[in-house]
Design a protein that fits this description.
The chain is of the alpha/beta class. Helix content is about 40%, strand content about 20%. The chain has 2 domains: about 130 residues, Metallo-beta-lactamase, Chain A; about 160 residues, Metallo-beta-lactamase, Chain A. A hairpin with a 4-residue loop joins strand 12 and strand 13.
């Protein structure tokens, strides 16, 4: 496990999960009784406990997942059990799934297989009384910080971003695409919405953040230029896949074509399994979106 300070009293923990091709980042803010952003899957909980111990953190006042996809939020219930004084932040569309994850578990099984718990750990419920749903733009005061909660739909309709007004750091989840050198899109079927995604990017860019804190990756500077590029790539990959669909390409062929197109943008550490996950996700995300829109 790797721990690094990325801003004042803000720490990034790398929590690699066996069998997953991406590094996952958990963020801890060591002010007041502590804030955890992006709990990750339950399999990451032991690493989080170790990281907190190394930082001298004994409690958590807030747990804030950017969205409830299992790799970002699966450990929320487990951590809430470990830290009974903590409060969980939720988007209004994710609230019911955090307190009753039955449907979430069902969709997770479809994506990750029936035995996902053996690798990622269980998805446990959180008591309704411990979940808070802020308004879009609402601010949570934590010690000397003001954490602004921003609704950030696109990748998922229940996605939020968290802006630390003191450091200028923006915890962006997957709202701004992937943390690759050239930001690859990150559409997620079945609920990806491209208009929402692009509008969210504009909204987050207008905050003029000083750094982006990705969940699959690390801290990235020069946010304005990067967000602009993420918007360009979101549109250009959409145009490609829509063209493939209109020309009758099957999904297998689309995956092969998009892999060739993006080959120079893949990070060197990405192995075939990770490339396959990404190309499958991008084809499914965009193609489902275009079918729902009646465009192909």
């Amino acid at each position: 496990m790797k721990i690094e300070e990325i801003a004042e009293k803000t720490y990034r923990l790398e929590t690699p999960i066996p069998g997953v091709g991406l590094v996952f980042s958990v963020y801890l803010i060591d002010v007041d009784n502590g804030v955890l952003i992006e709990p990750g899957p339950a399999a990451a909980v032991p690493d989080i406990q170790d990281g907190m111990k190394q930082l001298g953190m004994r409690e958590l006042s807030w747990i804030i997942p950017t969205h409830i996809h299992m790799d970002h939020s699966g450990g929320t219930g487990s951590l809430a059990d470990l830290f009974p004084k903590t409060t969980v932040i939720a988007h209004p569309k994710s609230f019911k799934h955090i307190i009753d994850p039955t449907r979430l578990i069902r969709s997770t099984r479809k994506t990750y297989g029936d035995n996902f718990e053996s690798l990622y750990g269980p998805v446990l419920p959180v008591s309704k009384s411990r979940v808070v749903v802020p308004e879009d733009g609402g601010v949570i005061p934590v010690g000397d910080r003001e954490l602004q909660i921003i609704y950030a739909p696109g990748h998922a309709p229940h996605h939020i971003a968290i802006y630390d007004r003191k450091t200028g750091g923006l915890f962006c989840g997957e709202a701004l695409g992937m943390a690759t050198d050239d930001p690859l899109p990150a559409p997620a079927a079945p609920s990806f919405n491209m208009e929402d995604c692009l509008n969210t990017m504009k909204k987050l860019k207008a905050l003029e953040p000083r750094a982006l804190f990705y969940s699959h990756g690390g801290a990235i500077l020069n946010p304005g230029k990067r967000i602009s590029r993420a918007m360009e790539n979101t549109q250009s990959y959409a145009d490609l896949i829509l063209d493939y669909m209109k020309n009758g390409f099957k999904k297998k062929a689309m995956r092969e074509k998009i892999t060739e197109y993006a080959a120079n943008q893949f990070p060197p550490e990405w192995e075939y399994d990770m490339i396959h996950v990404w190309r499958t996700g991008i084809v499914e995300g965009y193609s489902t979106y275009f079918k729902n829109k009646g465009l192909a």
